[in-house]
Specification:
Helices cover 46% and strands 15% of the residues. By secondary structure, it is an alpha/beta fold. A seven-stranded parallel β-sheet has the order 3-2-1-4-5-6-7, with helices on both faces. Helix 1 crosses helix 7. The longest helix has 29 residues. It starts with 9 loop residues before the first strand and ends in a 5-residue tail after the last helix.
């Protein structure tokens, strides 16, 4: 439950090594959260495959407890159990941050369609089972927020990153539908749509206009949680940019640079 002054107390991060996700968790810890569960593939490993670096960062920010939890996006049958395990570790979940996925490279996907399908599964299909399991738990609790890290890439899919964009479009739609399904239960969903964010995952991609840092995304998420927002654009100007982009004729949309 939220603590005595209304701050988030427990956080589950699905995608425990995500730079954006960890930045969000750190921001929530600095705002009062004390227990964080870092869910990632091989999270409990003692070596480099684990989440020690991320856990140390959160403890330095003030987290009292940081728990690793093994979580595999491809193991859809295990997602319900992973959420249950997170509850055993942390108790009621105030905030669940869904931040796992694969950006990949469009040219590589076109050369290897099977790898494209695997990436799309990690960026969309895995979220279906995970987020439905989270939604069921939050509904049972009667409180809590599922924060889904989407992308402006899913607002209107570009040919330059069509696999990633299509997967994010599916994720965005899933998140909005779950938000409607949870309306009136005390639980809710917040969709986060960042633009270009420089991270290790995106280092092979050319910078786009209106970039944001992981810290800016985290700050926007914290503010959105405080004010009860359903959709957060980072930076906020992208809301107006993509309102215009939605209206571009397809013939003009095709001409956008790759």
């Amino acid at each position: 439950m939220r603590n005595a002054v209304g701050a988030v107390d427990t956080v589950l991060l699905l995608g425990g090594r995500s730079e954006i996700g960890v930045a969000i968790a750190e921001r929530l810890v600095r705002g009062g959260a004390r227990t964080v569960v870092l869910a990632a593939r091989g999270a409990s490993d003692e070596g480099a495959g684990g989440v020690k670096e991320q856990a140390d960062r959160l403890r330095a920010a003030g987290a009292a407890q940081v728990h690793p939890l093994d979580f595999d996006a491809a193991d859809t049958a295990g997602h319900e159990g992973a959420v249950a395990s997170a509850v055993e570790l942390a108790g009621d979940l105030d905030v669940v941050v869904d931040a796992f996925g694969v950006l990949g490279d469009q040219a590589a996907f076109e050369a290897d369609p099977a790898s494209a399908a695997d990436a799309a599964a990690a960026t969309f299909t895995g979220h279906v089972s995970a987020d439905l399991a989270v939604a069921a738990r939050l509904r049972e609790q009667g409180h809590g927020t599922l924060v889904v890290v989407s992308s402006v890439a899913g607002v209107r899919v570009r040919r330059a990153n069509l696999v990633y964009g299509a997967a994010k479009a599916g994720l965005d739609g899933l998140a909005q539908g779950l938000g409607d399904a949870l309306h009136g239960t005390g639980a809710r969903v917040m969709v986060v749509r960042p633009g270009y964010v420089p991270t290790k995952m995106s280092r092979h991609v050319s910078a786009a206009p209106f970039p944001a840092t992981t810290e800016q995304v985290a700050a926007a998420v914290a503010e959105g949680l405080r004010t009860g927002r359903e959709v957060v654009w980072v930076p906020s100007v992208l809301r107006y940019v993509f309102t215009g982009m939605r209206l571009l004729p397809r013939s003009m949309w095709r001409r956008l640079p790759r």
